[in-house]
Model the fold of this input.
Amino acid sequence: MPRFVDQTKIYVKAGDGGAGCVSFRREKYVPRGGPDGGDGGKGGDVILVASSQLHTLYDFYHQTHFRAENGRPGMGKKMKGRDGDDLILKVPVGTIVKDAETGEILYDFTKDGESFVVAKGGRGGRGNARFATPTRQAPRFAEPGKPGEERWIILELKLIADVGLVGLPNAGKSTLLSRITAARPKIADYPFTTITPNLGVVKLDEERSFVVADIPGLIEGAHKGVGLGLDFLRHIERTKAILYVLDASKGEECLKDFELLQKELAHYHRSLIEKPAAIALNKIDIVSDRQKLYELKAFFEKKGYPVYLISAVTGEGIKELLEGLWRLIHQV
Done:
């Protein structure tokens, strides 16, 4: 399995332009044929293209230097050199391109098929035929090709999803994602159940669907880089809405869990806790006292959150949750 890579630094170099040609027409019975050196070809561009088929920057993990083809030199008989082939690099939708030196955002890919020329190829040099004038009929010089652009860039991936699942490790987010979508994240009983973001598509019917992202669980201090830290938080920025997944079997302790989650989101960026949100009280199948669940539900509803009692294992309450998330997304 390719590893999940969501940030990398690469070097891109566009092709250099081909040199112009110094040539003179040499044909029988044509004295003083004059200059006929052709222009050099243009260097190839380096082009980034967004692809919805990619979900990681893994292709740029081992290879970090990319060069487009140089233009070919011009030839006699005013023949232009061939242009260098463009180099097309595919990146996931949601990739932000930054200049490594200045930090300036060069482009933000939000749609499948978008393209951006990150380095332009050099112009081909002019051949000596271009420099002939009535007073300079036999120029013995031509232009060299212009060098192609080169730069170091940073690629940063921020997943684009309609709903982001937020919760502590082992709150049941991965199980929920596998229940409501065709995604099959690896699930096990260890502190960071999920170590890479997972995307899944929820299909309610023929006309209604939305994308859900399950991203590694938060722990206290995540905004400072503790645990998986920023590897998680950057992917919440683009979501339209947030679903807080809480372990209802912990009783009133899940109130503290919710406060911790909101604190970490707010420390990273205040706008995250201002996003439309709902709460899923999960693992109700192992709660014996249902009255406590209703009390928790009422507490969060007073705070203005839609609350759903669910079991990601048995499927109880899932249909109501998905319909509620659909309504929440379309309120944005």
User: Anything to note?
Assistant: Residues 8 and 60 are 7 Å apart (CA to CA). The chain is about 15% helix and 25% strand. The longest strand covers residues 150-157.
